Amino acid sequence: MINFTFDGKAYEAQEGDTLAAALLRNGIGLVGRSFKYHRPRGIMTAGVEEPNALVTVGEGGRAEPNTRATDVFVYEGLVAKSQNRWPSLSFDMGAVLGLAAPIFSAGFYYKTFFGSAKRWMFYEYFIRKAAGLGDAPTETDPDRFSQRAAFCDVLVVGAGPAGLSAALEAAEAGKRVILVEQDSILGASLIRDPQEQDEAWIDATAEKICAAGGRILTRTTASGYWEHDLVTLTQRIAEPGQVPPNGVAQRLWHVRAGEVILATGSIERPMAFANNDAPGVMLSQAVRTYARRFGVVPGKRIAIATNNDDAYKTAEALRDAGAEIVVILDARPTSAGADSGFHVHNGVPLSVTGAKHGLKSVSALVNGETKSWNVDLLAVSGGFTPVVHLHMQAGGTLDWNEEAQAFVPAISRQKVKTIGGAANPEPIFTVAPVSNPKKSFVDFQNDVTLADVDLAWAEGYRSVEHLKRYTTLGMATDQGKLSNMAALGRLSEKQGVAVPEAGLTTFRPPYTPVTMGLLAGAGARDAGAPTRRLALFDIHQAESPIWQPLGYWFRPRAYPKGRETLAQAALREAQAVRTTVGMTDVSTLAKFEVSGPDAAAFLEIICATTVNKLAVGRGRYTFMLREDGFVFDDGTVWRLAEHRYLLTSSTGGADRMATHLSYVRNYLCPHLRVSVVNVQEHYAGIAVAGPKASAVLQAMIGEYPPRHMSTVPAAIGVTPVIVLAASYSGERAFELYVEASHAATVWAACEAEVMARNGSLYGLEAMEFLRIEKGHLVVGGEIDGRLTPHDLALDKMLNKAGGYIGASGLSRSALSEPGRKQLVGLEALEGTIPEGSMLIRLEGEAPQGHVTAAAFRIIEGGSIALGQLVDGFARHGEELIATSPTRNQRARVRVVHPHFYDEAGERYRD
Amino acid sequence: MMQISCPHCGPRAQNEFVYERTIDSVVALDAAPEEAMKTLFTRNNPRGVDEEIWRHTYGCRAWMVITRHRVTNEISAVRAVGPEALP
Amino acid sequence: MSRYSALSLLRGAFNGQKHWQPAWRDPEPKAHYDIIVIGGGGHGLATAYYLAKVHGLKNIAVLEKGWIGGGNTGRNTTIVRSNYRQAELHNLFEFGLKMWEHLSDELNYNVMFSPRGSLTLGHSDADMTMLAQRGDAMRCDGIDAELMTQDQVAKFEPLLDMSRSARFPIEGALIQRRGGTARHDAVAWGYARAADSLGVDIIQKCEVTGFVRDGDAVVGVETTRGRIGAGRIGICVAGNSGHVAGLAGLKLPIESQTLQAMVTEGVKPMLRSVIQTQSLHCYISQSDKGGIVFGGDPDNWPSYAQRGNPIIMEQAVAQGLALVPALSRLRMVRTWSGVTDMSFDGSPIIGETPLPNLYLNGGWCYGGFKATPASGWTYAHTLATGKPHALNAPFSLDRFERGATIDENGSGPMPNSR
Q1: What is this structure's pTM?
Q2: Chain A CA closest to residue B82
Q3: Theoretical Cys-Cys bridge with A155: which of A257, A354, A881, C407, CB 3.0 to 4.6 Å?
Q4: Cβ–Cβ contacts within 10 Å for residue C314, how many?
Q5: A672 min Cα distance to partner chain B (Å)
Q6: Do B3 and A230 lie within an 8 Å CB cutoff?
Q7: Cα separation of A124 and C288, whole Å?
Q8: What is the percentage of chain A residues whose pLDDT exceeds 90?
């Protein structure tokens, strides 16, 4: 015995029970409330197609709302709650909505609630509260979800007789086989109809499959069929709400299959008659399953309504279980069941009556007369819908099988075939519904009736997609598994065409709903984003810096001392650079080693500046254009040796630049004799800047350091380094590049020399202050992908010979017209310039530009900034307002030249 | 998710590859400006087969040209490009 | 057109809802129209409506190859907002947003525009500066935008993970309170019904297979239902712009890519606004039916497949769960894809083509739905007068060759630019 609770009350289940079976075992017929009218609903099916019996299972962050009671196996301590009812399941105030059903016809909300948007939001508040089913958990999910990739020769979906046989055949032929079954046990239809092949056959077959190397996964659903025979499987390791044994609740498989065999069977159809949604109306095969598999007979006096032979098996099963078969209503015109030994009438159900907790009677049209029987259960079989979802997701087509009144797989687009009941459904006889369409439900969960389908038709929503969208038919959690064919039937009747001409909606993944946590996997914790750590991470971390995210990197933004704020720390660090010396980690800069006889020729294609005149040991500033002529990155290029260059560019653009270089080298210039190697992470980089930087360098490398824009190879101790004399800060400065694995020793040596001179570490914030004051550009700030070299005042550096990427783009007419934004400096006349703020002439006027970066004069103080301004080159001296309405900040500024510090570059010289 | 046969590595999941552009949008280095802009800013974009440049970025990093149907995703050819593929 | 109202519904309650007429006619195509709009999506139907309503034109047809609203109109994540950084974009979308605010009344069809707030999260100081810049640009042009602090965000959307240790911690947000969602199908149906009542012929199952030329000029279309002449023809088939323009021999700065979206099973209200982020690539909102609607990146390669990709889907869900952990046990019930026109600066194209009488409206990337009223209004102006309206003048087709691109992200001339 297994203990579980439903709506707070304790019950007992038997081993192997689904929650639905356990509820029925305990005589519980009322399980949920419908979406729109809050009609009482029971259990209709025994499978994943269940539209009615939705409950919340589990507690806290593990609670799974909208769980089908037919698709959860009871475990000790299972907690289930009914949904969408208040105050209780049996007395639900929401049911008053049902009284208003004549008003709430299909699409009623499109025809009312007019007025302002605010007024709609007032109505919407109540509509939203009434809609939805269960409550989402508010706590964090304590469990994990794993993901796994697999390959196989044959993937078999469905472990009924056809699937088991196919899997065995493939496995014994030496193929790698995966067999998946959504149920907890194998057998599928054999479980309810064990006559032909019994449990022993199932067990023996499974054993042979495994012995031949096949893999069998139960509680696993093939939920999506994607491109090139990729199938996603969702495997339940723990049941909904259950504490998983190893912390992993479910597993997602990506299986790339050589061939896919679909043995997915079919789903029984309900019938349309008045109150066909009442608790106590169940599908025939479901009733048989409860009787044979679970030993639960959910009624004593039972009627059966059918249009096929299969339902007679249900009658037999129920009779064997001791129930009374009051009547069989067989829709077929001939006396199909006459010799069955049952009380058979040729007729179709009209209506059922009954309270919330079970049926009282069923009435039917028999030979033109209405007859009625007292029953407590009605088992219906309206035919069979092959499960063609995966075949269709794979891009296949369907044929119409007239005998079965069903769509069956026709042409397959991928390596997939369908076998068994899914390919060959049983023949049926179809009769048009004769009952009150307003009470005849087609989509049970969303409360869509035949009358709604009729209304949509009358109003012109006649394509099947319009019908679906207007009535919400097929859009509930059961994804139309029970409703689509009934609606298509009605639609084709209206159109006066055969069903296949009425159209078909798309079969979209997933086959059954998939837990979001499973799709996210480990990504739920880190958004699937890697973290890139500096080689010197531990050294920085020891200083407790403020970290700044930059792409996937984290870089020190400042190293506050004591109770310093970020701004205070950054200013102190920047002042150290201006007055003594500072050092910072520049490892993340993009770095490429370009070598070979054609290295210079290659770089002249990449860089918009000249490169080939660079002497060995010298470097220069450079920038790169996209093919459309806009500047997209900048950096430096160094000639390390005759045929060997180092190219640096921005951190943020590093991956983009790597791809760009590779594309140009491999696709555009395969003939060049050049090698381009991305050495971004091979080298760690340390920048040393300040009036005492030369002294620091000399102490470290034991020789007088190279002059500005020169480079030398050197060694610190035994560690080789590349020394570049380059400055972003405006001071005499050097960048040291060292193999990342040796970075710590070089950093330590450097830090000792810097500290010995009262220097300081500095972070990105100080670097930002320094470069703004100097008027240096940053990618993502001034270089925003929308400006030309001319706009950024870089045009004088362009390679006059052309030949670089982007030269063609620059020739476009609008790029030389007036009115373009241009780089300017800004200094505050009053207030502090807000970064990112808009530049306007007068309040109320449209912006003419914006502030790309703001800082302070490091020594003298005073707010300064860089910006982009329409026709800015010609507007030096003009006064503007830098305004940030979202932050309620503004400053009066003067447009100036964008170099606030040492414009002549004298500080680069020792 | 497609499966692409890298000329160097064999069949691999498509998320190892990055699409670059179609071959009709390759701007030759020596193209005249007007021609270059036309190439850059127009596409055949057929609802059918096209030739595309992809890179096995999260694999061998080699470039290739893939002939693919835009509706069915059927890949009819993959050829290597780059210095290694020169005659 | 019988008017919709609460009263008419009540009347229906007593007559079994039997008095409703078809929302639009099913006319046979005429031999000639003054203006033909190709494409019966929201934009095409809105264009036809404003041609009839604002410009008083009587002889207009909308040709739809399938069923109206069946393309991207019925496949998007229904977000409406105007919070763009670039003035040309926010001015166009704001013009539309103002129209959304009265659209249900205008059309006598409840499009359920719900200005529940468009929230863009920032995950670093740099993000917050970018958001402030965007908000400031909007505010200076008279569009609502507010910055929110961490505390305000936490109060506004309590299920967001505000922990400081998150991989993308939430530092604040930019909110456009007037932004929100609308019911996508209703937009197509509402415009269709209103246009039909003004005499517009909406012709479904009528695919354009070619253009009829008189020299350079386009004077009609060949369709699966025969040849139809026209004074002016407006292409309005985003997702298939390249294909249809190709029938006229035009090559466009557009690549078609698949964008997918998904929705969970319905749950009781848990999210209030439309959540987007500055650093991640997912957007989340809750529909009136209770489903959580998710979107992510497009597949970054050309496709007309209208089929999704599990990897992109899993990435979007991972990012969504990192932001809202409480979504973990909800179940994704449906995923779908649309084919989007990815233009080469991320902005739409509305205006003339090099061929006389032929006009183009497309290139909406993944942001066309919110523009529906503004797109229809400006395109109608362009088609009626032969000249662009000031709002769509910057979005001309020739801006690419001229160098006057409108590049919101600064990412350059490829839809998936590096």
Answers
A1: 0.96
A2: A666
A3: A257
A4: 23
A5: 8
A6: yes
A7: 7
A8: 88
